[in-house]
Amino acid sequence: MxxxxxxxxxxxxxxxxxxxxxxxxxxxVQATEDDREFDYIRGxxxxxxxxxxxxxxxxxxxxGRMQSPIDLSLARVRFMSQPERTTYKPFxxxxxxxxxxxxxxxxxxxxSRFINGTEYRLQQVHWHTPSEHTINGRRYDMELHxxxxxxxxxxxxRIAVVGVVYQIGHPDPxxxxxxxxxxxxxxxxxxxxxxxxxxxxxxxxxxxxxxxxMGSLTTPPCTEGVIWTVNTKVKTVSRSQINLLKEAVLYYAxxxxxxxxxxxxxxxxxxxxxx
Length: 275
Description:
single chain; alpha+beta; 13-stranded mixed beta sheet; 16 strands; globular; zinc; signal; metal-binding
C-alpha cells in the first residue's frame, strides 16, 4: 500500500513539474511576443501597414516618397554603363538572430564597395524570405542584403545595400557554411555565435548587370537615401536552407518581406559593369 501511495506521489510530482515547465515556457514565449517592436503579419496591429504609426521616428514608413522594396522592370529603366569595384576581404564575424532575421556581422574591416568613387564599407549581410524586391513582377524565394556604410560623414547618402535574389535549386554554398550556427540559434532572439574569420567573397555577389535606384531601409525606421543595387543574376538556394532560416527567426518573421512600395516616378537604372 505504501509503495502504491509513493508511486502515486511520484507521478503527481512529475505531472506538476511538467505543468510548471510548460507554464514557464508559455510565459517566456508570451514575453518574447510582447517585446516585439513590429512584425510582418498582414493585418496585425504591428504589421507593415502600421509601422509608420508605431513610433514618431518611424513616420517615414508611411509618409516617405522613396520607400523600398519596389518592382524592378526592364520596361521602365534607363540603361547605363559604369565599372564598379569591390575590395572584400576576410575578417572576424558573428552570426546573430534578431528575431526578425539572421545576419552575419563583421567586427572590423571586411572590405568595401566603391560607388561613383565613394567608399562604402561592408557591415553585415542578412536574409529575407521570400524576396523583397520583385523583378518584372516576379517574386523570388529569397533575397540577401549586403549592407554597407560610408565612413565619410559628409556623404549625403551614407548607406548602400546590395540585393541578391535566389530561386529554389542547388544549395547556396555560403549558407551551407552557416547551417550549424543557424541551427544553434533557432528561436533564440538576440543570440549571437562567433563564426571566426568569414570571407565576404564566398557570397559570390558579383553580377554583370544590376538595377540601381534610390530607396530606403526595408525595416523601421524606413530611413530614405539608401543607394540600392539589385543584381539581375538569380542564384539558387535549397528549400531546406530556406526552411532553416524561417525556423530560426520568431514566428512573426517567418516571411520577413516588406510589401512592395510605390515607385513614385523614381528613376531606375540598369547598369552593365565589371566586378
